[in-house]
Amino acid sequence: DSKDYVVLVAIENNTTFTVNGVSGGTDGKGRTVPTSLSAGSWFTYYFEDINYKPYYIESNNRLYLYHASSYGTTEFGMDILPPISECIGSKQLDFERPGTEASAFVIVPT
């Protein structure tokens, strides 16, 4: 079971998004991914259990993107991902859980 996921929270109505260039489709748990979200609505997108797989998330409107991860049954963490901007020098976000082989790369262009 995937222990890493992102929560996409729409700020504006008719927010469309893609994950790795795909609109809709299914996530790592085989759940149907919506093609758009209304302001205030959210969707949890579960990553596949594939080490070092990058995830490129793009939207037509601003949204909040939270990353959640767990290790075993006792450790859990969640954080909001900042926008990626050439102004602050970042072109991607990547994170890795120490002591495991699991990691993910999330790229969120602004």
| Helical residues, percent | under 10%
Radius of gyration from the CA trace?
14 Å
Number of strands: 9
Beta content comes to over 45%
Order of helices and strands: EEEEEEEEE
pLDDT < 50 stretches: none
Q: Which strand order spans the largest sheet, edge to edge or round the barrel?
A: 3-2-5-9-8
Oligomer: single chain
Biggest beta sheet summary: 5 strands, mixed
Distance between the first and last residues' Cα: 30 Å
Specify the number of helices.
0
Based on secondary structure, the structural category is mainly beta
Instruction: Give the mean pLDDT.
Output: 79
Shape: globular
Molecular structure report:
It is a single chain. With 110 residues, the protein is mainly β. Helices cover 0% and strands 45% of the residues. It has no helices and 9 strands. The strands form 2 sheets. A 5-stranded mixed β-sheet has the order 3-2-5-9-8, with no helix packed on it. A hairpin with a 3-residue loop joins strand 6 and strand 7. It is globular, with a radius of gyration of 14 Å. It starts with a strand and ends with a strand.
Structure keywords:
globular; 9 strands; mainly beta; 45% strand; five-stranded mixed beta sheet; four-stranded antiparallel beta sheet; single chain; 0% helix; 110 residues
Give the topology:
Elements: E1 4-10, E2 15-19, E3 36-37, E4 42-46, E5 53-59, E6 63-71, E7 75-80, E8 93-96, E9 103-107
Parallel strand pairs: 5-9
Antiparallel strand pairs: 1-4, 1-6, 2-3, 2-5, 6-7, 8-9
